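Duplicate of #3305? Posting structure anyway:
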């Protein structure tokens, strides 16, 4: 049966506490998930006209007005 090295010695060999913990964490959780491509934001249609809400015009009181409606 082989003897384990003391924790202090294993940490020193790994290059310090941070590197020791980081390698253990990566071994358990896996590498970081970076990127993933462009995110597509959902388009919320208007319940009245069915067009996307970003095409609407803000009314005088802060409400949204459909772009096809006449101005009051």
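Output from current build:
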């Amino acid at each position: 049966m082989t003897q384990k090295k003391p924790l202090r010695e294993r940490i020193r060999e790994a290059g310090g506490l941070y590197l020791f913990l980081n390698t253990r964490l990566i071994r358990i959780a896996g590498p970081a998930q970076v990127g993933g491509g462009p995110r597509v934001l959902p388009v919320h249609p208007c319940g009245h006209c069915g067009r996307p809400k970003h095409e609407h015009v803000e009314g005088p009181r802060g409400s949204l007005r459909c772009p096809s409606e006449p101005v009051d």
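Confirmed duplicate; merging threads. The radius of gyration is 29 Å. The first helix runs from residue 7 to 14.
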